[in-house]
Amino acid sequence: MKMSQMFTKTSKNNPADEVSKNAQLLIRAGFVHKEMAGVYDFLPLGKNVLDKIVQIIREEMNKIGGVEMSLTALQNPETWQATNRWDDEVMDVWFKTKLSNGREFGLAPTHEEPITKLMRNFISSYKDLPSYPYQFQTKFRAELRSKSGLMRGREFLMKDLYSFSKDKEQHDEFYEEISKAYLRIFDRLGLGGYTFKTFASGGSFAKFSHEFQTISPVGEDTIYVSHEKGIAINQEVYNDEVLAELGVKKEDLVEEKAVEVGNIFTLGYKFSEALGLKFIDSDEKEKLVFMGSYGIGPSRVMGLIAEHFADDKGLVWPENIAPAKIYLMQIGEDAKELAEEVYNKLTNQGIEVIYDDRNTGAGQKFADSDLMGIPYRLTISSRAIKQGRFELVTRKNGEIEELTIEDIYNKFMK
Amino acid sequence: MKMSQMFTKTSKNNPADEVSKNAQLLIRAGFVHKEMAGVYDFLPLGKNVLDKIVQIIREEMNKIGGVEMSLTALQNPETWQATNRWDDEVMDVWFKTKLSNGREFGLAPTHEEPITKLMRNFISSYKDLPSYPYQFQTKFRAELRSKSGLMRGREFLMKDLYSFSKDKEQHDEFYEEISKAYLRIFDRLGLGGYTFKTFASGGSFAKFSHEFQTISPVGEDTIYVSHEKGIAINQEVYNDEVLAELGVKKEDLVEEKAVEVGNIFTLGYKFSEALGLKFIDSDEKEKLVFMGSYGIGPSRVMGLIAEHFADDKGLVWPENIAPAKIYLMQIGEDAKELAEEVYNKLTNQGIEVIYDDRNTGAGQKFADSDLMGIPYRLTISSRAIKQGRFELVTRKNGEIEELTIEDIYNKFMK
């Protein structure tokens, strides 16, 4: 995309009302706009990154049998009264609203109840199981305080998959599958080395649930990492009994601050019982469906990645989710023709390029390229044209290469 | 996709609580699920169709310079008080909600106010104009009655583009461009011959606005169509003065019932003035930005298309937006191997196929194929294998061809 077509601009100053680093950087770089605390618009560059995160998650969910659909935000009180989660005392993040005739609705903070009710239409036999519907959907949560930028929103995107199994055995098999899929996702998002499957409290049904925690100095959680086993334990279940059960020793664990980037829950019969989701098994007996739920917040993950990799010049996107691979700078009028040619040739090959074709000084262009965090910066200047060698800088480590145009094509057009 | 992997099922009976034909059919065929009046989940087949409609609109918006972003549902009262549209007496479709501390929010029924305010960050000079941000976003409208299925939702998807121009001349040029883009969209959606650019009341600023109206017996609007000129006039501005201005005669117009599928508005300075969106022009004078807004509801259009083309057997999707091109039926165990082979070969070529691999009678499969409205039905049966010729039926006209497997590959793999 050409900068002249993009309607956003970068800003030198941090927004006065924003305390979180991810939001400060994303706002300054023109990726998001703050409507109010915890409520962010996604501008073209930000939407591009978010879409790429969504697509990686989608591919991994489809690979393990996930089927995509989309539930609604508006919710019926009756559906949630069945599990006693309509009450604000029980679930304190409800945004509730109503029609002028007084009929009340809620805005879904999660979707266990409606999906369980929906599946009553489609599950009647063991042959209908297992089933793995999922969605990317906007959740609403009435958080009183919301100061962590994209990492704790009042309105945010969520991938939620629900598993419906005929028994615990069928469930456990999928639970292992999706654990692996989650690790593949965080790997592809560039968080591989920092993200651990973490044992956490299981709630009323299971002994453990599992979180995926990314080590980060801004983390609000404390975890204990076993690098040897590639797992971690949340502080909330960090005790001798659990250590013994997992076969790890205190002295091998490293205490870290971490951010929760995903979670997977065994729900068991909690929702199927309350909402009457049953099936006839092969033994002709009627049984309750065994459920699980599995979340990742793409916008939260985007906030974490922004914050995690940033340096003092700005954002640094992993290549897989960067809004473009190359930031193409043109310096000087006589460099325009070649810059256009390179831009067209690369984009025609499907390589995403941000072409800074503005009549702006080189300093501004360098600064914007760094702030936006595009993986490679290519400079086409009159001097470089004379020399036949062009500067290509890698954002994440500042490495500089002097390449011919031919070299550049060879490097990116694989 | 294999039917055995899809979690939805068709139903023989019309849902008892649903009066609109589009929702009845879409529910029976397993495309959508009704949460409550005007609030529908999109199940995998329905989401597939909706995504295709969205993609066609996106391509046409990008072609004319649109840049995609995504605004929020939650709205700040202050933003809307500036135009006096926060008041329920002025805008009666607000869903309003609040935090436990009393702080009030609204759920956006449209987005003129927040986009105008947002653009104050990015528009300061005539060089920043024109600009055409757009989004696909969920709108919320607190309609008291909602009985038209997907055609009038309380929660529904909307494409809204906003134009920001330096003057009326720049605006008018784009207004013509997007009018043409809209006609291309409805053409690609299969509504070409039935959809007319329709002159309607312009509101406070412009003489006319334009609606895109599709002729349909279920339409709630009355329009007068000039087939010769390819335009129509809404009843609300159907008078001698307008007829004279448009150069059409009463006797050349045909009265029709129609459904509004899109609209385009010249907004002028209404929002830029109220919210202070100004720029410095080339003459160094400060001026207000000239605005327009342009809507299409993809879910509404989907409802209309469902209803418009349906026959007594069920849905009939235009090829461009059908959830699959081919409904592949396998009849008899010994047809399984070839059916699998054909399924794999077609899907590997990127052709979408619904493969009915269920252990169900042929009658059920025929009925489901018709109800779902897939453009072609291909039957692989033991009898056909013996004869070397396979029945391919075109859904929309019932045309039957007897083809070899080679013929079938040639027909679909272009």
TrEMBL record, chains A, B:
InterPro entries: aa-tRNA-synt_IIb, aa-tRNA-synth_II, aa-tRNA-synth_II/BPL/LPL, Anticodon-bd, Anticodon-bd_dom_sf, Pro-tRNA-ligase_IIa, Pro-tRNA_synthetase, ProRS_anticodon_short. Gene3D superfamilies: Anticodon-binding domain, Bira Bifunctional Protein, Domain 2. It catalyses: tRNA(Pro) + L-proline + ATP = L-prolyl-tRNA(Pro) + AMP + diphosphate. Pfam families: HGTP_anticodon, tRNA-synt_2b. Coiled coil: none annotated. Its EC number is 6.1.1.15. Residues 38-318 form the Aminoacyl-transfer RNA synthetases class-II family profile domain. SUPFAM superfamilies: Class II aaRS ABD-related, Class II aaRS and biotin synthetases. Keywords: Aminoacyl-tRNA synthetase, ATP-binding, Ligase, Nucleotide-binding, Protein biosynthesis. GO terms for molecular function: proline-tRNA ligase activity. CDD domains: ProRS_anticodon_short. This is Proline--tRNA ligase.
